[in-house]
């Protein structure tokens, strides 16, 4: 598996506060998505950084790129971790899956869109 970092996700209690902070700190442009205009993603020079709100505990999740989501999820489980079900294929992003390692550290898997 490749395993390079392909996406980051900021989970915030208040997405608007985090959006303002990171936009002002780094000058990252922000694109809103969905019904919540304070949620969406930043485009950094190298990678997209997602932002969502209503997380009881703010966190930063790292998503690692994999070529085959099903095989990667199976490998996580075989090695003693846990892989939640993969989400739907999001146009322009691909498929995501939240996981934990055997000690409970959270991370994600990301299979980019084919196009």
Automatic annotation (TrEMBL):
Going by the entry's taxonomy, the superkingdom of the source organism is recorded as Bacteria
Domain VOC residue range list: 4-112
InterPro entries in alphabetical order: Anthracycline_SecMetBiosynth (IPR052164), Glyas_Bleomycin-R_OHBP_Dase (IPR029068), Glyoxalase_6 (IPR041581), VOC_core (IPR037523)
Indicate the secretion signal residues: none
Check the record and name the Pfam families matching this protein.
Glyoxalase_6
Q: Which SUPFAM superfamilies does UniProt cross-reference here?
A: Glyoxalase/Bleomycin resistance protein/Dihydroxybiphenyl dioxygenase
Which PANTHER family does the UniProt entry name for this protein?
Answer: GB|AAF24581.1 (PTHR33993:SF14), GLYOXALASE-RELATED (PTHR33993)
Q: What is this protein called?
A: VOC family protein
Organism field = Microvirgula aerodenitrificans
